[in-house]
Amino acid sequence: MIDEKKEIQAAPRASYSAGEVEDAVFDPKASNDDFEVFKKTTDGVDFRLVGWVRASVIFLKDFAIVQGNFRNSHAHCHSIADMANVVGGPVLREICGALFIAAYVLCTGSGIVGLATALNALSDHAVCTVWWAFLSACVIVACASVRKFQKIGWLTWAGFISVYIAVFIVVVGVTTRDRPAAAPQEGPFDLGYHVIAYPTFIVGMTASCTIFVSSAGTSAFLPVISEMRNPKDYNKAVYVCMAIVQASYLTFSLVVYKWCGKWVTNPSLGSAGPTVKKVAYGIGLIGLAVSGCLYLHVAAKYIFVRILRNSRHLQQNTLVHWGTWFSCTIILGALAFILAEAIPIFSYLIALTGSICFAPLAICLPGWLWLHDHWAYRKRNAWQMFQWYGHWLLIAIGMFTCVGGTYGVVMAIKTAYANGMIGGAFSCADNSNTHG
């Protein structure tokens, strides 16, 4: 009699399409290479060229372990939507796929706003902001149209270094001033320090969602795994990435808050005054462009794989291959530009991305993925049961952040329009440089 479990273990995951991903038990000793979305090839396009060091730098520019472990246990998963299909079926797959695209299109929009703000600052507002945004969108689309993460990986080194140095210059710059650049330059002023603040619900949720986005982009890590030479090195790359990110965020933010308080500008590169602002933007220009490029590349690669998966065109230099790829980058880039101009205040664009997209993708879904692979924990020892109920709590927090955060951000945008803080969609005014 045939052993059914062994028969399931031998099932080739590579035969599953995006709409047919199965939740089966596979032999942990078996090689996952045959199950990968992109195959190692010598007669086609070899996407799997990214080493773990370069992956860690890509992650530094994209910015988790639950998702990575789940993905490496289900190697047919190319994206967060494929994972959603494993735990929730086709309906959840399409919902998460739509949220994933929305998240990274909005992130691309924030990249366009950031790059346009830099060009505005460097040129002393020589032309209408909309034209700088259009130019920024064109640059980002062109860079994102490079097909392989391995090629973009070279850009990420330059991008990461440039932004890191730019931020460091601002951090040093704010400590040399007697008062913040955005604060009143004469007379008394309040830095606005609060150990425990008591904001309104709308202000609190908007601020929380803005902060949350800084480390919520872990769903963008997943397509990178599919292009790593050894996907098992994923955890190594993430640990390096997160150590650098968390240490930098903590030290830089504490120094800037100490010297600027509530007078930090949005984006924060303007917090040390006009001269340092120009220096920082000049140095960080490459990094701002690369950030938007990566966001757009991740979104385009998701749609590209969904369209061509299990087709010879996925890894062959055919007209269909190139036409599909360029269509993905150009259409999504155009959509990001439109959204960036429709919601021109940088912080609101970031907050909306956090609430409506990343709360479900980076809080709710990872909790669900963990529960799926650890279902037996609900009836084991006290520590495992604690983890079980803790992940249910994580899902509840994600739902609250999604609903409450979206409401808060929408109301904040409505108030900003009513108070004249936003000049209107496709306005020549630079609405990004506000303090909070």
From TrEMBL:
Q: Which GO terms describe its cellular component?
A: membrane
* Ranges that cross the membrane: 98-123, 129-147, 154-176, 196-225, 237-259, 279-298, 319-339, 345-371, 392-413
Kindly list the places in or outside the cell where this protein is found, as annotated in its UniProt entry.
Answer: Membrane
The coiled-coil regions, if any, are none
Sorted alphabetically, which Pfam families does this protein's record hold? Answer: Aa_trans
Topology versus the membrane: Multi-pass membrane protein
Predominant subcellular localization, coarse grouping: membrane
Q: Which UniProt keywords apply?
A: Membrane, Transmembrane, Transmembrane helix
What is the top-level taxon of the source organism? Answer: Eukaryota
Which residue numbers delimit the Amino acid transporter transmembrane domain? 81-410
* Entry's Gene Ontology molecular function annotations: L-amino acid transmembrane transporter activity
Which family does the entry's similarity section mention? Belongs to the amino acid/polyamine transporter 2 family.
* Name under which the protein is recorded: Transmembrane amino acid transporter protein-domain-containing protein
